[in-house]
Amino acid sequence: MISWPDELIEVFDRSLTVTFTSVTKSGQPISTPLTPYLNRETNTLDVSTGLTYPTKAERTRNNPLVTLVYNDPIGLGISEPPVVVVEGHGAVRDSDLQGNLDRYIRLSSAKLPDAMKGQPKFILKRFPWYFSRIWIEITPIKITWWPRGDLTCPPKSWTTDLSDFPASDAKPLGANQAPWLEPPDDWKTQAEVAISRLGLRDLAFVDPNGQLFSLPVREVTRQISGFDFFVPPNFEIPNGSKASLVFHDHPERFTGQENRTFLGIIAPSSTRDPGRYSFEVTRLLADWSLPGNKLMAAKSFLSNGRKLAPRLKFEAQRRGQPIPKVRFPK
Asked: Residue 194 and residue 258: Cα distance in Å, rounded?
């Protein structure tokens, strides 16, 4: 039985994107915008990642402490929604790949109907490399939220009384595949793109004690070495913290999204304004955005599909399962 604050359930249920953050073995937070799903059966907030690019899931299996930032009012249909940060325990689900794919088709078709609208099913059935999914079920440990999205006011909070959390499915056999995308060499050009057209911005950082935190940020500006931004009052970020800053956006009727994730460290701000911090970029992650322009999205989808399709058989074999088939409800 869900016991979270009632005022948050609608946000959890209706949000089209959430910023999911997991942590590498070296303590680097990595943030990615994903589609969230409220799971009433397990009392969890769920996200998925592609079976052919399972790194997010493997990070979570190694370190289950993750965060979610609900900071996206686009297409939500709620007037003045709260901004919500969830600190949670992630459990990876990949022991039933066919069930995972069927669930993804069912839930994503209902939540994002425009994303597949107009695409013949006989063509979509050729893309098991995309629809094959790993689910991550996140049990909230602590929830922090700002009513009406007003980050200038003190936030509210909720904490679970659970002490035992679900374990992930067993780790697959063998080593992970090499990354399938190379990151851009020029992060500065992409920083200008992010500032100019991607209006949703979320920060994650790991403090000196190894604790992961995530926060929405505002008034992000471009600096020579990276970015400056404001964080909500009463939050302090230790200098030198490893951090991740993600920019993202999508159309009101979700047909795709665009994002950029920068990795770096927190540094003293040159302005000395209270609550303002600097983010020194060390690198830009490889990005696979599917922009709202359907022609551009189709070209990106098909191009990257040629790289991802060969990885599907390998990942299914690692888990001792056949390649799942794309099936649509009748």
From this structure: 9
In tens, the pLDDT along 32-91 reads 999 999 999 999 999 999 999 999 999 999 999 999 999 999 999 999 999 999 999 999
Distance, in Å, from the CA atom of 43 to the CA atom of 36, rounded to the nearest integer, reads 13
Residue 112 structure tokens: 């994002």
Mapping DSSP to helix (H, G, I), strand (E, B) and coil, where does residue 128 land?
helix
Going 107 to 143 to 204 to 262, the CA torsion angle's sign is positive
- With beta carbons less than 8 A apart as the criterion, state whether 184 and 286 touch: yes
Q: Which amino acid is at 146?
A: W
**pLDDT at residue number 175:** 85
* Model pTM score: 0.95
Q: Which two tokens stand for residue 321?
A: 């399962």
Cα 174 vs. chain centroid, distance in angstroms? Answer: 26
Q: For residue 295, which amino acid is it? A: L
206 close to 28: Cβ distance less than 8 angstroms: yes
Q: Hey, how many other C-beta atoms are within 10 angstroms of the C-beta on 149?
A: 17
What is residue 295's predicted lDDT score, i.e. its pLDDT? 58
CA angle (72, 15, 286) in 5-degree steps: 60
Q: Which helix (H) or strand (E) holds 62?
A: helix 55-62
Q: What tokens appear for 17 in the block?
A: 């994107």
Q: Supply the pLDDT for residue 298.
A: 61
Taking residue 35's Cβ as centre, other Cβ atoms within 10 Å add up to 20
Which residue shows structure tokens 């609208």?
Answer: 117
Q: Report the candidate in 140, 152, 145 with the shortest Cα–Cα distance to residue 70.
A: 145
C-alpha triplet 19, 74, 133: angle, nearest 5°: 45
Statement: residue 218 has pLDDT above 90: yes
CATH superfamily of 6-318: Electron Transport, Fmn-binding Protein; Chain A (2.30.110.10)
Q: Tell me the C-alpha distance between 19 and 200, whole Å.
A: 10
- Total length of the chain: 330
Query: Which residues, 6+ apart, have CB-to-CB distance to 126 below 8 Å?
Result: 326
Q: Specify the range with the lowest mean pLDDT, choosing from 96-110, 114-128, 189-203.
A: 114-128
